[in-house]
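Thread: quick sanity check before group meeting

JM: Hey all, I'm pulling together slides for Thursday and realized we never actually wrote out the predicted structure for the chain we discussed last week. Dropping the sequence here so it's in one place. If anyone has concerns about the input, flag it before I start.
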Amino acid sequence: MGTTAHRLTAATQQLDPPLAALDVAALQRNAMALASRADGTPIRIASKSVRCRWVLENVLARPGFAGIMGYSLREAIWLVRSGFTDVLIGYPTADRAALAELAGDALLREQITLMVDDRRQLDFLTEHARSDLRICLDIDASLRIGPAHLGVRRSPVRTPAKAAELTENALRRKAFSVVGVMFYEAQIAGVPDSSPAVSIMKRRSADELSVRRSAVVEAVRDAGADLRFVNSGGTGSLEISSADPAVTEVTAGSGLYSPALFDGYRNIESDPAMFFALPIVRRPAEDIATAFGGGYIASGPAKKSRQPRPVSDALSLIPTEGAGEVQTPMRGKDARSLAIGDRVWLRHAKAGEMLERFDTVHLVAGSEVTESVPSYRGEGRNFG
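JM (edit): ok, ran it. Output follows.
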């Protein structure tokens, strides 16, 4: 990582931090690695983990990638109006104004698929949008062992019977086309391989889900749905999801940037690609250097793993202060040689969330910035 930090510093030396830099060669290697792991199953890009149109365009132009999984209806509308196609929204929406815009535009209705997992969501969509809406059913992909729930709390729809019931409810309304089903196995895709017990849990979950997923897909089709896709997976489970014959596409996004949370995955070979630099503004002690900014904490449970991570192993955050709103002190061997105005490089715990802090992404090839492109935020877009 020392070589990477030196190269990024050389490339951006004329720019004042805080700044975000993307190693383009690492991005390309990561995209190739994701496609290889998916083994021919098309990858839909999770835009929440990217949040930069240049990256979406660049990766979608590569073999093995097709379509976007968005996180907001307003985002999906913006992307389609910007020329992107086939946007599946990974989460339900309650945005009335955006639904009205979707309902009134044939192109948007053709290119955007909404996510539902409850008849009450169908009620809301029926009330605030007209007919001819494409929908996908979000199916609970968690593992249940007795009273234990391993995975995220997303959909209340788990069994083939419940999936068929929701399908029939949607089709009876004559307002929806059920075109897809989605399974996000967070307990596989989003959990680092930290112990043998975790590996056993992942294998057991994959086996259970493979059987249940096929049964759900069959039940939804028998209920009258003309399914165009069966979506599954995440960066951490591409091999497992793509190996299931019932799955027609997988989703990945974080693996393109390879954030710090992915350092613990044994099955993922990827190179950190997205970084941010902070300037040193204080030297409160010989072994402490304080940077401006840095409090870019990732979503999820508040703990150490959600903090940004210095690229240098000889720097660490101070436990009593962490990454601060305006300043971040770091302690370690490297801190002794840092002067006022020097920069330190860090990685965010997650992927796309970091770009809510930066308007511009500087594209680095070798030891130079070849182009500077806007993030979503840099284009004046914030979708929550």
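AS: nice. The chain has two domains: 2-21+269-377, 51-252. Residues 2-21+269-377 form a domain with the Lyase, Ornithine Decarboxylase; Chain A, domain 1 fold (CATH 2.40.37.20).
JM: adding both to the slides.
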